[in-house]
Fold Transporter.
Amino acid sequence: MKEQWSSKLGFILSSAGAAIGLGAIWKFPYVTGMSGGGAFFLLFIIFTLLIGLPLLISEFIIGRGSGKEAISAYQALAPKSLWTMIGRLGVLGCFLLLSFYSVVGGWVLIYSVLSIPGLVITGDRDYSALFTHVTASPSIVLLGLALFLIINVIVISFGIQRGIEKVNKILMPLLFLFFLILVIRSLTLGHAYEGIRFFLKPNFSNMTGQGVLYALGQSFFSLAVGFSCMVTYSSYLGKKVSLPTSAATVGIMNIFVSLLAGLAIFPVVFSFGLEPTAGPGLLFIVLPTVFAQMPFGEVFLCLFLLLFLFATLTSSFSLLEVIVSAFTEGKQRSRRKVTLISGIIMFIAGIPAALSQGSLKHLHFFGKTAFDSTDFLVSNLLLPIGCFFIALFIIHRMDHKRVKDEFMEGHALSQGWFSVWYFIMKWVVPIVIILVFLSTLGLF
């Protein structure tokens, strides 16, 4: 019998855990900083509510409607057709995403270990130099990558209830608590208002077509849609749970965490004269700066880094689960053996991205390092493509009655809500994705 989530709360927290991680806490602040601040955040909210949330509902419908993992779901709903390529694209995308995601997870893991004996906040340390040292050292980054993947392999090998769900129920609430503590401290800094204004006041004068694409990609990345991660997660869900309500809860939690991330980071950036365009290292430089100003800062930094590590892990769990379930569900294969082999292959695949800040920093693809090129390929190309074809599938290929039944199951929403969602999926989602792509290519 197929394993299921033990409760609605377990499903929501696990889905939120898949969404809330590097996307909201690590990537969102530095992409916002590089894309103009408030204008980017406003577009991100619009795209999340108008595009990301309807797509999240769509993946939930496909997953629970089929009761299958990413590839098998499309095979079951559209047998002997090319639509199964959506699932295969999802598995490939999860593989590529996890290959560089695990690198950052390794950074967080190394920082967490260093913070336990108080080795991050020491004297007048140059936090930028520390980050450069950690990310440029081959032995450190490869060790971090390996340990991060080992944790993933252990948890995924235990399955849904005893692995993924159990971890999320404990760690996600704790992450919110410590995030609020960090925000409160950041807002009391001297030039906090300048950071808040940069983050919350829209200024479209510096917004470009690429910035719009980044906002759209961020809405996909942070909600974990486009690669059928949520198809796999919702395939373990019972019929009594409302899919739109669950999706709305995950979406709102994601926007809230992104808001907290901005309020935690940008007041510090402007108070300490840092650059909001500092890039991927922004969080690793800003966090120690914040906690260094707090009483018992070493303790708080250690706790937050550990919780951030677990939030990062909950996101990576969903990526590895998609890969593992694709090779185990309905097949006579050991889940633990497939998980172990997947982890080893993932480690090998992640080496170029891991070394892209150090010994392989001169290796470029289309003008970008291995890390940045993989990030761009996944977040700004493959994710929107996956979302586009999921929108086409849910409207033009999946049985309309099954779609409606899954949407309406488990709640008392009116017919009007289904009609609104269906209209958005049929017209708004595909058109917006196409227009943003044309704008990025300079054709619109």
